[in-house]
Design brief:
By secondary structure, the chain is an alpha/beta fold. The chain has helices spanning 21-33, 44-53, 71-79, 95-104, 116-126, 146-159, 175-185, 206-211, 228-231, 247-259, 285-290, 296-302, 319-331, 340-348, 354-368, 377-380, 384-387, 401-419, 424-431, 435-445; strands at residues 13-17, 37-41, 58-62, 64-65, 68-69, 86-90, 108-111, 165-168, 193-197, 236-240, 261-262, 271-272, 276-281, 305-308, 337-338, 374-375. The protein folds into four domains: 13-126, Response regulator (Rossmann fold); 146-308, 3-Layer(aba) Sandwich (Rossmann fold); 312-387, Orthogonal Bundle (Helicase, Ruva Protein, domain 3), CATH 1.10.8.60; 395-445, Arc Repressor Mutant, subunit A (Orthogonal Bundle), CATH 1.10.10. It is globular, with a radius of gyration of 26 Å. 35% of the residues are buried.
């Protein structure tokens, strides 16, 4: 039978589902000291009846219960659209249970033995989830295409969870913007959002940058310094281009995620951190796992829920309103508009660089237009070769295959060089290849 503690009006109400008396007592004591009212259930069936009978502000459920798994409680809350954040308590060494719970809609998870500091942090975050979250006005994903509507709907759901999110998409498709919206719509909105480009950090500095260091840990360490994890404590840590992490750093990152603790370089003790992880890359992470370039265990930790960002080619109907919004921002209050043929040219353009490239094109057009109030197609200076689609290329021009591939590769490299003002290192990064590969390809194709 369920036992109910005396409830004081205005106290948040927490449903605790467990059949272990010792753990129940620990949870109830901890929650009561936080000013929370607890109601106990000792089975799945009992928990479902209580959830259906009245509102709760939070649910904590064990995984192993006498009449089934705690996953049934999570699924019940999700299926009935109950406004109840739910966290699952799993046995140590069973990460697959935690992943299954997060995918089913759990807010977060705790591993046994339950660490009270982590429990209190989880509860504080859960009870701050707003009922009707609103994004910050400065961060918006524009467009009304089905693809963009689906993305915005998934962002709303992900904001209510603490599950790690993997954002996949081409360069310039808005991966960091999506991550910021997940952060701003969730309970950590008032806490830091720390964005890290994993491909921009020298390998020998990665550990100290991520975890911080103690004074005297190495030459030049004149004072203690916090790392990315400490800076994001209580908030969100966004790992962009996570595929660029070297294998040695992947091992250390995996441990930090599993233990929710980090050790500064030069320190002998670990310190707890509470940061939600969102990662992203434009590369095929699953393929890198297959080739041994990315650890499989880290992949499963990061790739709990995937958010796929559509390319601009998949939402061409959104190009006019997105271009209009970008142009209004670039014009800074001055009247500026695209002529109809300019809009038509943009709608035909394939946009390999997606929204980021669209912004660059519009900024260039605004700067070069003889009449900034009326931007023509000529002002945009679109690459006529890039405007052609694959279907428009006659079949004969694709044979022999190597010549056709060389032409495509040469065009891509030249475009990358132009975008980076002929900085070969930056162009290689834009193309997703190493500098050595870039140099080899340029020599083979005769690009100077």
């Amino acid at each position: 039978m369920a036992s109910m503690s005396r409830r004081i009006r205005g106290q948040p109400k927490v449903l605790v589902v467990d059949d272990e008396p010792d753990l129940l007592e620990l949870l109830e004591l901890t929650l009561s000291r936080m000013g929370l009212d607890t109601i106990r259930a000792e089975s799945v069936g009992e928990a479902l009846r209580l959830l259906d009978s009245g509102p709760f502000d939070l649910c904590l459920t064990d995984w192993n219960l006498p009449d089934g798994e705690g996953l049934k409680v999570v699924e019940h809350i999700t299926q009935k659209s109950l406004d109840v954040p739910v966290a699952v308590i799993t046995a140590f060494g069973r990460p697959e249970n935690a992943v299954a719970a997060l995918k089913a809609g759990a807010f977060d998870y705790l591993a046994k033995p339950v660490a009270l500091e982590q429990l209190r942090a989880l509860v504080k975050q859960a009870l701050k989830v707003p009922e009707k979250p609103q994004p910050a006005a400065s961060y918006q994903l524009l467009g009304d295409s089905p693809a963009m509507q689906q993305v915005r709907g998934l962002i709303d759901k992900l904001a209510k969870s603490q599950a790690p999110v993997f954002v996949n998409g081409e360069s310039g498709s808005g991966k960091e913007l999506a991550a910021r919206m997940i952060h701003l719509k969730g309970p950590r909105a008032e806490q830091p959002f720390i964005a890290v480009n994993c491909g921009a950090i020298p390998e020998n500095l990665m550990e100290s940058e991520f975890f911080g260091y103690r004074k005297g840990a190495f030459t030049g360490a004149e004072a203690d310094r916090e790392g990315f994890f400490q800076a994001a404590n209580g908030g969100t840590l966004f790992l962009d281009e996570v595929a660029d992490l070297p294998l040695a750093m992947q091992v250390k990152l995996l441990r930090a995620i599993q233990e929710k603790k980090v050790r500064k370089v030069g320190s002998t003790t670990e310190e707890p951190v509470d940061a939600r992880l969102i990662s992203a890359t434009h590369k095929n992470l699953a393929a890198l796992v297959e080739s041994g370039e990315f650890r499989q265990d880290l992949y499963y930790r990061l790739h709990v829920i995937e958010l796929a960002m559509p390319s601009l080619r998949e939402m061409r109907e959104d190009i006019p309103p997105i271009a209009g919004a970008i142009l209004a921002r670039l014009a800074r209050g001055n009247a500026a508009a695209l002529e109809p043929e300019a809009v038509a040219a943009l709608e035909r353009y394939p946009f390999p660089g997606n929204v980021r490239e669209l912004e660059n094109i519009l900024e260039r057009g605004l700067s070069l237009a003889s009449d900034p109030q009326r931007i023509s197609a000529e002002d945009l200076h679109l690459n006529p070769v890039a405007e052609e689609t694959e279907a428009a290329i006659p079949a004969g021009e694709k044979w022999p295959l190597q010549d056709y591939l060389d032409r495509v590769e040469r065009a891509a490299i030249n475009e990358a060089l132009e975008k980076t003002r002929f900085n070969r290192t930056a162009a290689a990064k834009l193309l997703g290849i190493t500098f050595r590969a870039m140099r080899y390809r340029m020599e083979r194709l005769g690009i100077k």
